[in-house]
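Feature request, filed as a ticket because there's no other form

It would be nice if the structure record came with a short human-readable summary line next to the C-alpha cells. Right now we just get the raw output. Example of a typical job, pasted below so the devs can see what we mean:
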Amino acid sequence: MLTNVMRRRLASDAMEQRVLIVEDEFLIALDVAETVESMGLKVAGFASARKHALSLGAYADIALVDVNLADGRTGPEIGRELAAEYGLTVIFMTANPEDVKDGVEGSLGVLTKPVMPHVVEQTIDYAIANRLGGMAIVPRDLKIFRNAAQSGYSLNA
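Raw output as currently delivered:
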C-alpha cells in the first residue's frame, strides 16, 4: 500500500514539473514546447539569450539549453547558473555536443541535434525521475555527464 501512495505522489509531482526552453531557433523552440505540452507538462518560458534565461530560472524545474544562442556560446554558463542558483535539472540540446563533452557543473547531460520528439519525451521523463529520486532508463541518445551519473538513480538502456 505504501508503494502505491509513493507512486501516486511521484506521478503528481512529475506532472507539476515546468520546463524552460533556452533556444534561439524559434521553430525548434516551438517544436520542443509542443512535445513538452503533449506530455501534460507546462513550458515555463522561452529564452534565446543569457539574461532572459536567468530571469526565468525561478519559474522552472528543468531546462533544455542550446549551447550557441543569440548572444554567443553562452549555453554552458547559462546551464551552470540555472543549476547552481535555481536547482534546475539542465540538459543541453546542441548540434555541437563536443562543446560540452567534459560536462558542465550541475547539468545532467547532452542531446545531439536534431532531436526527435520521442527522444525529448524520454529525456524529460528521465530528468523528472532523476529530480524526484525515481528510477528510469537513460535514453539511448542522451549522453549523461560523469558527475550527474554518480548521483542519479538510473538504469542504462
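Something like this underneath would help us a lot:
The radius of gyration is 15 Å.
The first strand starts at residue 18 and ends at 22.
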